[in-house]
Structure formats: structure tokens, C-alpha cells
Records
---
Amino acid sequence: MISVFKINARPGRFACFVLPWVLFVVCFLLYTRASFVRHQENPRDKLVPTVTQLIDGVKRSAFEEDRKGDLRLWVDSWASTKRFFIALIIISLGILIGLNMGAFPYLELFFYRFFLFFDKVPALALLPILFITFGLGEVSKVALIVIGVMPTIVLDTFLRAKEFPRELNIKAMTLGASHFEILYRVILPNIFPKVLDTLRLNLKAVVLFLIAGESLAATAGLGYRIFVVRRYLAMDIIIPYVIWISLLAFSADFLLRYWIRHKYQWLNK
């Protein structure tokens, strides 16, 4: 037990396999206990459905057609996933903007204060303006995500580019590299893994703005469905949807972490 608090401790195979799951099991047991107690008091309780009711909710959402003939979970997942990746592609352009800002002083003067200001603007407060400007379609939802997350990516990339050792830039110049070669062949490859980490850590914000946009104006989407069924207190649908959204975001995070770990193995040395 004492070795738990040693900085140089090396967990064994058993600990590596068991410990990551302990808190999940505890949460599951606490939930099932709370569900059991509430259903003992009121068998028709809707707030804390039993595991059987949750499974039934998944079946109805994922494997049984609704009145329109759709499998709701998959239709909603596809709609949200499209918005998620379109927004992520646009947000990724912020890496290039921040990189150029950090390397070229005139671009820093031109862009820095603008992005610093918009990074402090609460994106949800702009939602009515976006709906008025772009309508209730896809553009306003994607724009909400981009406005909410892109300034952070730009500023993080900018700071990492600014922190890059100047001596390496000078050394590259003495070897005959042009300014753009230094930017894209020296600075970018070195800061890119850390910038990807920042993008990965902002996936939660992307999902948050996605759900906010869908909850107010959409005909399909995971956030839309949660806010539709909440009026019926359908927790047997809401809880599986929340878990499914979390699993999708976790999968995106896992894929990014896997790619960073294997593409940039020198980071682990």
C-alpha cells in the first residue's frame, strides 16, 4: 500500500488491468443500488430506471423503427457526427493561423488581439445572433462550435510557435532554409503533437456546443433527441444517449491519442 505513493512506482499487470475499471464498477453499483431503492418505494419511478429498463430503451432506440420508419439512435448519431467532423475540420485550420501568427510578427499584430477578444466571448450568448444571421440550418450549428473552440486552438498554437527555440530557426537559416521552410518543416512538425493534444482536450467543448445547437433547433441529432424526450421524463432513453455521446467522444479522443503515440514515438522517449 505504501508503494502507491512512490513517484517511481511501477504498477504490475494485475494493477494495470484492474485499477482503471474500479471507479466504473463503483459508479455502476451505486446506480443500481439507488435504482433498486427508488423502485422499492415506487415501482413506477422514472427518474432512476433499472438496468432492464435502460436495456429496453436502447432496444427501442437502436433496433426498433419509429413512426417514420427510422432507427432513431443511428439517424441521430449520423446527423451529430457529420456536424462534429465538419466543425472539427474548420477548427483545425486554426492550427495554420496560430502557426503563422507565432512566426510572423506582422500577422501577430494583425490577428492576435482579435482572437484573444473572441476567445473570451461566450459562444452560447451568440446563438440567437447566429440563428438570425444563418437561419436554423446546419451552418448556425457548425458556426457555434467553431466560434466556441477555434480561438483557443489558434492561441495555443500561437504560444507554442512563439516558444519554439529561436536558435533552431537561425540554424535552419544558416543551412539555407527559406522562412516558409522553417515554418512548415521545422516549427510545425515539432509543435504539432502538442497542438493535437490541445485539440483532443477540447473535444468536450466541441460536443458541448454541438448539443447546445441541436437542442434549440434541429430535426435530428443526439442533443435534439435528449431535449425532445426530456419533456416525458424518459430517462431510459436519455441515460443511454448520454452514455453513447460520451463513448463517441471517448473514441475520438482514443484515436487521436493512439495516432499521436505511434506517429510521434520520440515524444515518449
Note: The chain has eleven helices and no strands.
---
Amino acid sequence: MTLHRVVVGLSGGVDSAVTAHLLKQQGHEVVGIFMKNWEDDDDSEYCSSNIDFVDAAAVADVLGIEIEHVNFATDYKDRVFAEFVREYQAGRTPNPDILCNAEIKFKSFLDHAMRLGAEKIATGHYARVRLNPSTGRHQLLKGLDASKDQSYFLHRLNQAQLAKTLFPVGELHKTEVRRIAQEIGLPNAKKKDSTGICFIGERPFREFLNRYIVKEPGPIKDPTGRTIGQHVGLSFYTLGQRQGLGIGGVKAKGAQRGGGEHTPWFVARKDMTNNILWVVQGHDHPWLLSPQLQAGDASWCAGEPPPPGHYAAKTRYRQSDAACTLCADDNAAFALDFSEDQWAVTPGQSAVLYDGEVCLGGGVISHASALP
């Protein structure tokens, strides 16, 4: 095995800590970097990177490696957060974690690491990289722990980025990572996994979005056209949403497909032109089911789209792979036809394509056709 100077993104969490340990154990020269990506109200109860840095520094101390604190907040605000706000304002539901990986962790961070003389970078993501000897190209693979696989969030990585990246914990299950952390006495061995978007943390999402999005209230309507409530602004809702609609006591008018009169309401459509939020009753209402989707802004790990044919796809992170047929328009756009209708396919989210364990890439969902 070739030994390298590897710069590891130490987040303060257990996955990146064990990543650094495993690389050092293999004999690599390991340096840690803590990325600060958000500065606004950073000392609040919701978003405290200071605590994470203390944890990361404690890990570096135990492992006997250097750690550097690097501020990428300006890059993050310009290249991730601004796009996040634009997408929400337009009524779509973006995934900033995907953009953060493409623009910050594997661009700004990678560039900084190379300036430090790194030959490789590493993070605590649950994914794997493999060189395909028949093509000479690097492949992004799912992590071995299916319940923790994060290839969905990494699907925009290109050949140059994959060639310089290591994902050691992608070869392990989470229980094994925790066991190693405890065994070597890492101070964050039992630290709970972070959830949510880094700049929002655990705070109520609508409360955060309120600061940046213009509110324009309007009617909530059911499929018959009846107004059954008021929404606070279309940007604050996403397709498939059930909570926070304020119409829980409203009963259906007549018999609706998908559920009885006490069945929950779900957001099904957002009419941005007329500022109407359309809701339906029942999880399996036809308006929530899509046999196909279109996606743009495509990014393919191999540098070119895979040939049209049969694959599997995810339209959201926690979804099982869904059998589909790829119809590629060009390098930047494609359509997917699904074997089974997909639930609440949401514009702004990513459709990510797989061939077995290989993540091929994907694109941003622009449109999903619902059943009539």
C-alpha cells in the first residue's frame, strides 16, 4: 500500500475521528482540519461549532496529530447558502448537504489540503471509492453499512475529486466504528450523530427560514377547489408534508380517493403562479404518486452519462432503491421512468442513479408527473 500525506476533515464527530485513527494506523501521515462553514449566531444553542472544534481538538490530541481551524464561511455563504435561499424562494426544496459536499468539502477543503502538501483527503462519510481497472476511472460505491450509506449526498463528485479522496469508515458498520472509538479511548466515542443542516442545527426550520424568505400567505385548497385553510407562504412547505398545515380538523368533502374523512392531509402541489397550496387526504392519493420525473443540472461521476437503460434510483436520502429506466436527453438533463410509482417526488431534491452498489451520479429534480 502506498503511504500518503492525508488531510482529514475532523468535524468533532466519531466518524471522522475513527477515520483519522484508521489512516494513522495504516501508516499515513495524517493532519486534521476543522472546517468552520457558518458564522451567523454560531454561539447559539442550535449551531455551536465552537463545541465541535473543542471535540475535534481533543480527538487530535488523543491521536497525536496536528489540527488546523479553517474558516470557509464566506465560500459557504456564496456558493451553498445563497443557492439554498434562491431555491426555497422559488418554491423548490433543495438539499444543501449535497451542494456543501460538492462546493466546500470536496472543493474549498480539497484545494486547501493540496496547498498544505496533501496527496489525499479523507472524511467520515459512509461511502467507498474504487478504481475500475477496465476503464481506469474511479467509481463511487455505497458504504457497506446500508443503513448509513451516504453516497446519495456525494453523487456530484467528479473523477478528480474521487481520485484524491479516502472514505475509511465506508468499509465498516457504524457499530464497529463506535467500538473502535471506545477501544482507543476517543473522548467523543459516545457523541450522538449530528442531524439536520449545519447552519440550522436543531432549531425549528420555519423559524430559521423566516429570516430570509419573504412571506406571502394564501389559500390552502383541496382537490375539489374548496378553500380549507391559509398557508403562511409556499416556500415554507414541501411535497408530502403532513405536519404543520393547520387543517387537522378539516374533513373531506365527499369521498376522496386515498382515504376516509379522518385521514391525514398531505401537501401535494404548489401553484407558485396563483399562490395556492394544494393538499390531499391519504398517503397514497394519486396526486402524490409519480411514474416518471425529469432532472437537470446533472453530474456524472464518470464524467459522462451512463447509457440509457435499466437502473435503480433514489429521489430522497432515506429511500430504498427504486427500479427505473434512464432516458438521457444530454449531459445535463435526463428523465427516469419508474417500475412503480414514486411517492412525493419533490422538485429541488436530487434523483441519484445506481447500478448495483455503484453510484453513477444524478441531477436536480425539475418536474415529476403525477397521476391524473
Note: The domain at 288-369 is CATH 2.40.30.10 (Elongation Factor Tu (Ef-tu); domain 3).
---
Amino acid sequence: MKLADLPTPCLVLDRTVLNRNLRAMAGHLSRLRVPLRPHMKTAKSIEVARLAIEGQSGGITVSTVAEAEYFMSHGIVDILYAVGITPRKLEHVVQLNAAGADIIVVTDDIDMAAVIATLDSPPRTLIEIDSGEERGGVAPDGDLLLEIAQVLGPALTGVMTHAGHSYAGRGAREMSRIAEQERGSATLAATRLREAGHEISIVSAGSSPTARHAENLAGLTEVRAGVYMFGDLFQAEIETHGMDGIAVTVLTSVIGRRPGRILVDAGGLALSKDRSTESAPRDYGYGLALDLLGQRSYGQALVRRAYQEHGVIEMDPARPIDLPIGGLLRIAPNHTCMTAAAHDRYFVVDGGDEVVAIWSRINGW
């Protein structure tokens, strides 16, 4: 089967690029002597997970209980559910753990800590630390950290943090600084908890930009990263990888032609309406048009408008797109996590147009 045989729009995954991205991150963290616990919230695929954990400790990170259940059903049991737990989701986690999983949960709330502590067999629990993003987590030097730890008691296993504010960083030097801030917050929290008499075995941190640009990870027991596997235009702009690191694209058909622009059947649902590159050095609209083999044959041809099922590509005058109605091209996304979320499978290629596999995804919550 060829790409030309596929229905559009659909998701294309270049396994050659994926494997190169996986090797690059694994090699970098190996040099820093910290294991990788890959985050599967972007890929949501057992085939990708198996590639990502090869040579690692075997654990993964997820962002939904549905993902945890899916990966457990495929034999991966060491799972960090890296979203603040709620009482109802805790019940589901307890059931999965009783069935053989080892799902770790996260909280930054003292009342939720009390709920966890009342369980006969509570899951391993991490306290979330705010390392600068100001989204979730407690201050590493605050009193609440020790108060939550006291309530959790034996359920407490460690701490975790996510430097989401790294996405606002620009350049390797700034990313390295944010990575050190992230590491320092996590290790400070772990040190204070140990000094208070708690056993801390997990000190978890990570985002793809900080993992890629970190120079020192001493004190961390693991690093979490996810989007690095697939890459996207925004990650290329903030130097997590190069433009050759984008493994996932959307295959789309030409459905209309006008002077200087074409209409395609990939709109907001197929591409997402994420505009993350708007604040980056180069703005790629809603995506960059590539040829059928994923090459930049069309210069700066950008998706400038995204309706529900329609995308409008403005051509680069220096490199016009000469395709008939039904002609195929691929679009590199701004934010691959959001783009992939609307699709239920990957059509896998190895650098060409031959579809070598079809990998399913787990969506929903």
C-alpha cells in the first residue's frame, strides 16, 4: 500500500525519523546518567512505546487513565500517571493496580493526600513540585510540601515536576538555565523530605526542551519527555530538534485551486488550531506544506487559514504548488500532540511513500 492509496486527511509517521529522535534523546540522557521514563501522552501507541523504552528502565509516563489501562493491557505495568489524581480516578487506579499494574499517582493537595492515605493498599504517590511554570505543584521550599508528606505517610514515594515554562524559552543557553531550575526545585524538595525522615526513591523531572538541553541532572532518578519522539514545527523553533526531526505529518488532498493558494481537506480538526509558532522566531501559520515524500519542495507554503474541514495554503511565490484536484501533499504540524489527538491511527513509512505498518492509538480519558 502506498500513501496515494490512503484516505485523507490521515496521520503519517516516518519511523526512520522517529527512531533517530529516540536514539538522540536516549543517548543524551545516557551521557548524563539518568534513566528516561518516556511520556506517551503524544504517541498513545504501544508500538511507539516499545521502541521508546528499549534500553531504558521499562517505565512510562501517561496523562490519562485510559492510557494507563491501554498500556497495562499490552504488558507495560510501571506507569506514572502524571496528572493530579482525583478520588474517582484513584478508585480506577487501585483497581488496575490490583489487577497487576503498578501505577504511580501525583498530588499537590493535602485533602487528596488524606484520601490516598486511607487506602489499604495505596498506590505509590509523588508530590508535585512547582519549578516555575505556576500551573500545578507546591513550592519546593514551602511548608505545604512537608504537610502533604506527613499526611501521605508510607504512600509517599517521591516528587515530580514539569518545567512547562521551558516552552517560552529560546535558545540552548536559556533552556539549559531552565533545566537547572527544574532540577534544583526537584532535588531541593527531595532533600527537605529526606531530612524530615521520609524515604524518597523517585525524583522525577522533565520536558522535551529541558531534557534535550540539560547539562547536569545530578539528584534526579528519572527524566520524562514525550514530544521529542515525533517533533513539530514549534519544537524545531525552540531547538529541541532540527527541521529534519519532524516524524509526524498530515497527508491531505487538494480540493480547490486559486491564484496563489490551494484548498486542502485538512482543516482545524485534522491539524488542530494550535498557533504555538506565532510566538516563535518563525510563524508557520497552521502548518507547513511538504511534498508527498515529506520534503520541503514548496518553500514557505503555509496553511494560513484552518476551517473545520478545510485548510487554505498560501503558496510561496518562488516555489508554486502545481497539483491537480486530488493531488496529495503533507503538512508538518505546529504542535504534534494536538494534531495527533484527532486521529485514531498512524500510517507508518520509512522515509518513502510505501506504508509499512498501521499503528493504532488510544484516545479519550
Note: The CA atoms of residues 207 and 297 lie 32 Å apart.
